[in-house]
């Protein structure tokens, strides 16, 4: 009788084991599915953040360009989107009179801006020269801090 009894117990244990195994596999697949869903949501969120950062960066760049353009337009008295030597010299004279601590040697010369030598400073030339001036100032500041 023990053989019959142990066979029944084995079947009962096998059935219980298979049920538990099925439950574990089901839980495992559900967990994997939830993780995949979560990963997809996170990827979408990261993509959205990336787009937001790009948008903010573009907005900041546009604001910087607008500030540079507004600054460029100050000496452009006749509004032709270019600065003549006369407009430049008048602007420098006015600027230096408003800031008596500055010397004319401290202010860039017209020829520093007029890269193509046509007698006018366009916005592109102005922006290039200002970027160059910023680079030089950063180099001087870095050298001074060492």
Q: Overview of this structure, please?
A:
With 146 residues, this protein is mostly helical. The chain has four helices and two strands; from the N terminus they run H-E-H-H-E-H. A two-stranded antiparallel sheet has the order 1-2.
Give the SSE layout.
Layout: H1 2-73, E1 82-84, H2 85-98, H3 110-113, E2 120-122, H4 123-145
Antiparallel strand pairs: 1-2
Count all strands and give the number. Answer: 2
Strand content: under 5%
Secondary-structure-derived class: mainly alpha
Largest β-sheet summary? 2 strands, antiparallel
Radius of gyration: 37 Å
Structural descriptors:
single chain; 146 residues; mainly alpha; 77% helix; rod-shaped
Concise synopsis of the structure shown:
The protein has 146 residues and is mainly α.
